[in-house]
Design a protein that fits this description.
IL-34; single chain; disordered N terminus; macrophage colony-stimulating factor receptor binding; two-stranded antiparallel sheet; Growth Hormone, Chain: A; mainly alpha; two-stranded parallel sheet; signal
């Protein structure tokens, strides 16, 4: 009986490890696509100066929001799911604003495919445990007059920073800090998620 239970636990552990490995492969691909040079080129240089999109307040998901939710006891699993849904919506908003031959379109399409792969096998009922996250998701799907004007680059900056904070340790993401831009959430804002030793990016 004990041997059978041990075998079952091993199978479950291996299954979970395979899921993590697959998710991390997707996250590492997304991490590369969202690095600073791509965000500047596709989200700023290819848009008119001071161009902004109107998005819901819930779609401006920044490090501060993540910190607040962590302090309220929200799990990393829920935060990752919320982050995925929010940014899937943001990519749709950006895509709708682009002319058919806009040079940013292929880049947005690539990001959408990656997010679809990441969220493909997730189930909201299994991912969401708290009423607070459910309320945020409900507001995302409701029409509202409360919108905020945000630059396309700022939206993907938020996406990248929160990705790094939520997946850095588990997926061994490299540290892209540079003199050009501080791309990461400040370590002190996310004490439960911050690495003690960060992996530098290869040049």
């Amino acid at each position: 009986m004990e041997a059978r239970l041990l075998f079952l636990l091993c199978v479950l552990a291996l299954g979970r490890a395979a899921v993590i490995l697959n998710d991390c492969h997707i996250i590492q691909t997304l991490h590369g696509k969202l690095l600073y040079d791509n965000r500047v080129t596709y989200m700023r240089e290819y848009f008119p100066i001071d161009y902004k999109l109107y998005v819901k307040y819930e779609e401006v998901l920044r490090c501060q929001n993540i910190t607040t939710l962590i302090n309220k006891g929200i799990t990393v699993k829920e935060l990752r799911y919320l982050w995925g849904i929010v940014n899937e919506n943001i990519l749709q908003t950006i895509q709708r604003a682009l002319p058919l031959r806009h040079p940013t379109r292929p880049y947005i399409k690539e990001l959408q495919i990656i997010f679809e792969a990441l969220l493909r096998d997730t189930n909201e009922e299994q991912q969401v445990e708290s009423n607070q996250i459910q309320e945020i998701l409900d507001r995302l799907h409701q029409s509202t007059d409360e919108v905020k004007a945000v630059t396309p680059k700022a939206l993907l900056d938020n996406c990248y920073k929160v990705l790094y904070a939520l997946y850095e340790d588990e997926c061994a993401l490299c540290n892209p800090r540079s003199d050009v831009e501080d791309t990461l959430c400040p370590p002190e804002t996310l004490p439960e998620l911050s690495s003690h030793q960060r992996t530098p990016c290869k040049s």
